[in-house]
Design brief:
Elements lengths: L2 H27 L3 H7 L1 H30 L1 H36 L18 H14 L6 H22 L5 H11 L13 E2 L2 E2 L11 H6 L1 H18 L4 H51 L1
Antiparallel strand pairs: 1-2
Length: 294
């Protein structure tokens, strides 16, 4: 067996053994996952409890909306009574302070000019409460989707940032498709003005969407915690024993594979060049002998 072939087999065996060893080291780190999760169980539990608690509270409110709409008279009266009592208490305290200041000025020989506060009581009608709870489930139906919720909350800002970038790619179809795929969640119609009309309106990045329903976004905050914050927390906690070593392994194996491939290529190239030189020398010697015999 040629020496070069033996050396190549040995190098391949070393690379394979090192790869198996590295994979084993990374796999061994996975055994620490239960320990790390147990060590951080309090943080994970608090975030999960908060997120699922908010989701449960939202769903409970949505389910209760028909019942609450029927109780609109009682709810409106209760809210008016509580808020009015709060307003009366606060304004009365303010008036007491103003009265004390006026009395102090009077005894100092100054002429007081107290301006007491007029009460502005809340007048929430039962019809407003009924309409609110009747429309709330339909208005917040789409906000259970975390992508839709984040898009509605940030679209006005992201449209100003990304839509002009998408608009300039319109003449090139593949660039237009790519930028709309990447930034479509956060922009309006980016087609240049005068080129295309949607629903009777030009595009040109003009924001004509209805403003986001911030109440529905606030009610959906539990989905943000469960779908975004909780996974990010788990990734951050498990990164040292999972994602980090895996990425490091992928980098090491890529470098080692490239080195092995380059070594194999140049060895074959040098062998081919050596064989060509040997063949060329033999032919040159043969031609020189033929010339001498002639």
């Amino acid at each position: 067996m040629p020496y070069n072939l033996v050396q190549k087999i040995e190098n391949t065996g070393k690379v394979t053994f090192r790869t198996v060893e590295n994979v084993g080291d990374v796999a061994a780190n996975f055994l620490f996952i239960p320990v790390i999760l147990f060590q951080n169980a309090f943080i994970i539990g608090i975030i999960a409890l908060l997120g699922f608690g908010l989701v449960f509270a939202r769903d409970l409110l949505i389910i209760s909306c028909p019942f609450l709409a029927k109780m609109s008279v009682i709810i409106a009266g209760t809210i008016n009574m509580v808020v009015d009592q709060f307003i009366v208490t606060i304004t009365s305290l303010i008036d007491v302070v103003k009265g004390i200041i006026a009395a102090v000025k009077f005894f100092e020989g100054k002429k007081p000019h107290p301006h007491f506060t007029k009460y502005k009581l809340l007048h929430l009608s039962a019809e407003d409460v009924r309409v609110f709870f009747t429309n709330l489930p339909a208005e917040c139906e789409d906000y259970t989707n975390i992508g839709y919720t984040l898009s509605e909350a940030t679209k006005r800002t992201t449209n100003e940032l990304f839509c002009p970038l998408v608009r300039v790619t319109y003449p090139v179809s593949w660039m237009w498709d790519t930028t709309n795929t990447v930034f479509g969640w956060g922009i309006t119609n980016a087609v240049p003005q005068g080129t295309y009309i949607v629903n009777g309106y030009d595009g040109n990045c003009e924001f004509r969407d209805h403003p986001p329903n911030w109440l529905c976004i606030a009610l959906s905050s539990g989905y943000v915690i469960v779908d975004v914050l909780l996974p990010l927390t788990l990734v951050a906690i498990l990164w040292p024993v999972t994602f980090g070593p895996v990425l490091h392994l992928a980098y090491k194996e890529t470098v080692m594979g490239v080195q092995w491939a380059l070594s194999w290529f140049f060895d074959n190239m040098s062998a081919s060049v050596g064989a060509f030189q040997s063949s060329f020398k033999k032919r040159a010697q043969m031609y020189s002998k033929q010339i001498k015999t002639k």
